[in-house]
Structures are given as C-alpha cells and as structure tokens.
Design a protein that fits this description.
BofC_C_sf; WH2_dom; 4-stranded mixed β-sheet; 7 helices; BofC C-terminal domain-containing protein; Alpha-Beta Plaits; BofC_C
Length: 220
C-alpha cells in the first residue's frame, strides 16, 4: 500500500530528526559541564516517576473495583449467567460463558486479574476484557477517512456509507495538501483500510501531525 510505504519513510525521517535534536541538546548541556549521566537522569526521572505513579494508581483502582465485585458475588448463592465482553480498540464482542455458581465466578475472576466487571440488573454477571487489537469485524470492515467536518474518522465499511465508529480529531486539510506527497490526501478521502492494530496506529500517528487541536481529546 502506497500510504504505508510513505508512512514508513516519514517515521524514519522523524526518528532521524528526533535523534539529531537530542544529540544537539546533549552537546549543549555537556558544554555547560553537566555530566551525561546526570543529564539523562534529569531528562528521564520526572517522566518515569509520573508513569510509575499513574500505573500504581490504576492498579489500586482496579484492585478495589475487583474486590467490590467479588463482595457482590459472595453476597448470595445465586446462580448467574456470565458473559465475557471483549472491548477492542475498535469494536466489542460478547460471549455467553454459561451459568456459574458464586464459587465458580470468584475463581474465574481471580484467574483473570486484568478483568473488570459488573452485575447487570441484579442478574447477569458481565466480565470485561480489554484487548489491544481490532475486533475480527473491524479487521474485515474498518476504514480511516474524513467526515464532512474534516475530522479523522474510523468507519464501519466504506466512508460513503457514513457508519461512524469513532471520531478522532479535526485535520488541517490545507496544510496536508501542501505537505503530503501527491495522492495521500486523496487516498485518505477515499478511505484507508486498516486491517490490524499496526495499520490503525500508523494512520493515527501520521495524520496526528496535522491535527488542528492537540491529539488526545478523542471523541467517542
């Protein structure tokens, strides 16, 4: 695919520019007499601490949520239907796992510490698994393109069918016309097939450079 070939070249250029910038920064700081090891520590420590704190907070929240769910399950001896809801980056799938006793539900959840869940309408237990991939349906049908407002959008099927799955961010089309190689914008307008998580991330990464607002505020 021409777009993917372009994207690989563009990523290589960006890596080269990033490496060059870091080298200049290190050279300037080294000239000021700051040891390289100390420089690297000053550049990395703050970010590492923030990431560790975020991870710890997330794990604590997950543990508390799972403990609360287990307490609900143990509160009575009711037999429940259990559904596994797989939440993909694109798409969701639900599977009926069958009827479980409270003891079987507790065992199931403890065997999968990464799962979350809830009891639906005081009846069924829904356990949720987050999968960093596209669902089988999305792998067969997903396209990235522009909606009528110029937003980068994920579609179920070809863009002309207007079945929006997810809207990401508005693009600076004028800048794209002058910066991108000929044909890339037209290809996006016609729709770029994304068949796996690598292609999905590749498209987001490439066109994220042309977002009107900072990337991160994604519209579901």
């Amino acid at each position: 695919m021409k777009f993917l070939n372009f994207n690989k070249r563009w990523k290589k250029i960006k890596r080269t520019l990033t490496t060059f910038t870091i080298c200049i920064l290190l050279a300037v700081l080294a000239g000021a007499g700051l040891p390289i090891s100390q420089m690297m520590q000053s550049l990395l420590t703050t970010g590492s601490i923030e990431v560790m704190e975020e991870d710890a907070s997330f794990e604590e929240d997950s543990t508390m949520a799972q403990a609360s769910l287990l307490q609900q399950i143990r509160s009575n001896d009711k037999l429940r239907r259990v559904f596994l809801e797989k939440k993909y980056v694109c798409g969701t799938e639900t599977m009926n796992l069958g009827n479980f006793t409270p003891e079987e539900m507790v065992t199931l959840i403890k065997q999968h510490p990464g799962w979350s869940g809830y009891i639906e309408a005081e009846s069924d237990l829904v356990v949720q698994e987050t999968v960093n991939d596209l669902s089988p349906h999305c792998k067969e049908n997903a396209y990235m393109s522009l909606d009528k407002e110029g937003n980068l959008t994920l579609f179920d099927g070809k863009p002309k069918e207007e079945k929006t799955i997810r809207t990401f961010f508005q693009l600076d089309v004028g800048s794209m016309e002058t910066s991108l190689p000929a044909g890339v914008l037209e290809q996006l307008q016609n729709g770029i097939r994304v068949q796996d998580i690598e292609e999905y991330n590749s498209v987001l990464s490439t066109f994220g450079d042309y977002a009107v607002a900072p990337v991160g505020n994604i519209i579901e």
